[in-house]
Design goal:
Helix content: 10-25%
Strand content: over 45%
Largest sheet: 13 strands, antiparallel
Order of helices and strands: HEEHEEEEEEEEEEHE
Number of helices: 3
Number of strands: 13
Radius of gyration: 17 Å
Length: 225
């Protein structure tokens, strides 16, 4: 499914677009997604308020900021979705295909209070300019390190496996919300990593893509049963 830049920009300007939660590194051009770990030195972790040992869905979405859509237009980059990703009701949606999550009481000292890994195999999005197309797919979110990793391909050829693509600013994260058999984590700011900025600038021969550029606000919805 391909979506025009005009459509993206129009929806974003109306304040109704969405995307995901996390980030990766350019010096080595390789960066494996690390296992989740706690920064607490305590040998015994507190009991999590919520624990999902095997995620079965549903999705990560990101509401794109209007400034990001404008930046794509300025750079003449046309976005599109890949695989099972979709643009639905103004949201870019990436189905969750596996992983695990523990959520601890944020009012306590134990950090990070969201830990685990969230996988999105078989989906992603693309950026195209002229004859050059970059595919970003198979996202892995590590909420414990506030990073999102993904595979990067240029014109169909893999450039990096599980590169650090997005940085997640959880300072605006809302408390865990429950709705029926699902739990929702919403409010994290999704920012372009220095790794991704360098890679995109090199690929598209520009210096306009800046580290920490705001992409949008993330919303993760997972099944609790």
């Amino acid at each position: 499914m391909r979506t025009s830049l005009k459509t993206f920009a129009g929806i974003a300007a109306a304040g109704s677009l969405m995307f995901s939660l996390a980030a990766c590194s350019p010096a080595s051009n390789t960066s494996a997604a690390p296992a989740s770990s706690s920064s607490s030195a305590s040998a015994e972790a507190p009991k999590p308020l919520a624990s999902i040992p095997a995620l079965t869905g549903t999705s990560t979405a990101v509401k794109l900021d209007a400034s990001f859509a404008k930046a794509l237009e300025t750079l003449k980059l046309t976005p599109g979705v890949i695989g099972t990703a979709a643009l639905t009701d103004g949201s870019l949606v990436f189905p969750i295909t596996g992983g695990k999550v523990d959520y601890y009481d944020p009012s306590k000292d134990y950090r990070p209070y969201v830990q685990g890994l969230i996988s999105h195999a078989g989906s992603g999005f693309s950026l195209t300019s002229g004859d050059t197309k970059v595919d970003l797919t198979n996202f892995t979110i590590n909420p414990g390190t506030s990073k999102l990793y993904g595979d990067v391909a240029v014109n169909g050829t893999t450039a990096v496996k599980q590169a650090y693509i997005f940085n997640l600013d959880g300072s605006t994260l809302k408390p865990l919300a429950k709705a029926g058999d699902t739990a929702v984590l919403e409010g994290t700011r999704v920012l372009i990593s220095d790794t991704a900025a360098g890679l995109l600038n090199k690929t598209f021969k520009t210096d306009a893509v800046k580290a920490d550029m705001l992409v949008g606000i993330a919303k993760i919805t997972v099944n609790t049963k």
